[in-house]
Amino acid sequence: DIQMTQSPSSLSASVGDRVTITCRASRDISTYLNWYQQKSGMAPKLLIYSASILQSGVPSRFSGSGSGTDFTLTINSLQPEDFATYYCQQSYISLRTFGQGTKLEIK
Amino acid sequence: QAQLVQSGPEVQKPGASVKVSCKASGDIFSKYGISWVRQAPGQGLEWLGWISTYNGNANYAQLLQGRVTMTIDTSTTTAYLDLWSLKSDDTAVYYCVTDRLYSTSKLHAFDIWGQGTLVIVSS
């Protein structure tokens, strides 16, 4: 299996801040990396696929980058609705795996 | 509107089995495979396996090997997750989700999610 490790596990920030979440794969996954947002009590939502491509309807303040083993999710100018938990997920191999999640909280 | 609608909450005893259904609307059943993901209370997302809605072939995560079967009924565009020999650790919200191939990237991502089914395993 491919292990996905996110950092930090939790993060406090204020509205208007810029935040970055990182995700590291245990081996090279090219750009087979997706990011999801999950709000409390809701199903996750796809934000970014293929490391950097914004899913339709996702605000442009979200961006993703990286390839190989190291990836980042950046949120510019945090909005109140962005406070949630974020997960990375690899689809390089058929046995999919998620990172452990990063909880973004209001400071 | 493309959506996945799952069956209702379940309470089962340890050692019992549970079957969760996931009905696909629209034409999504013919387009995408279905993955199952679960989330234990206060925990992260855990991928359980995937099934092809084309031919019913499935592959499962190692953690549930031997206790899970995923099936489809093409006549009702419904996917099923069967889990048996339940343990308290199986208490979780179970999600079905379309495993969509983005052709330009040749990558799969989880696109449309069901609302989740809470399964509680308790004596």
Structural description of this entry:
The complex is a heterodimer of chains A (about 110) and B (about 120). With about 110 residues, chain A is an all-beta fold. Helix content of chain A is about 0%, strand content about 50%. Chain A is built from no helices and 11 strands. In chain A, the strands form 2 sheets. In chain A, strands 2, 4, 5, 6, 9, 10 and 11 form a 7-stranded mixed beta sheet that branches. In chain A, a hairpin with a 6-residue loop joins strand 4 and strand 5. In chain A, about 35% of the residues are buried. Chain B has about 120 residues and is mostly beta strands. In chain B, about 5% of the residues lie in helices and about 55% in strands. Chain B is built from 1 helix and 11 strands; from the N terminus they run E-E-E-H-E-E-E-E-E-E-E-E. In chain B, the strands form 2 sheets. In chain B, strands 2, 4, 5, 6, 9, 10 and 11 form a 7-stranded mixed beta sheet that branches. In chain B, strands 1-3-8-7 form a 4-stranded antiparallel beta sheet, with no helix packed on it. The longest helix of chain B has 4 residues. Chain B is globular. The N and C termini of chain B lie far apart (about 40 Å). Classes of the chains: A mainly beta (about 110), B mainly beta (about 120).
**Count of runs of 4 or more consecutive helical residues of chain B:** 1
Instruction: Classify the oligomer.
Output: heterodimer
Coarse morphology of chain A: globular
Gross geometry of chain B: globular
> Structural class, judged by helices and strands of chain B?
mainly beta
**Order of helices and strands of chain A, N to C?**
EEEEEEEEEEE
Major β-sheet annotation of chain A: 7 strands, mixed
**Head-to-tail CA distance between termini of chain B:** 40 Å
Helix content of chain A: under 10%
Helix coverage percent of chain B: under 10%
| Greatest chain-chain contact | A-B, 25 and 23 residues
Q: How many individual helices of chain A?
A: 0
Q: How far do the termini of chain A sit from each other?
A: 36 Å
The overall pLDDT of chain B, averaged over residues, is 94
Question: pLDDT average of chain A, as an integer?
Answer: 97
Q: What is the strand content of chain A?
A: over 45%
Q: Which regions of chain A contain 5 or more consecutive residues with pLDDT less than 50?
A: none
Number of strands of chain A: 11
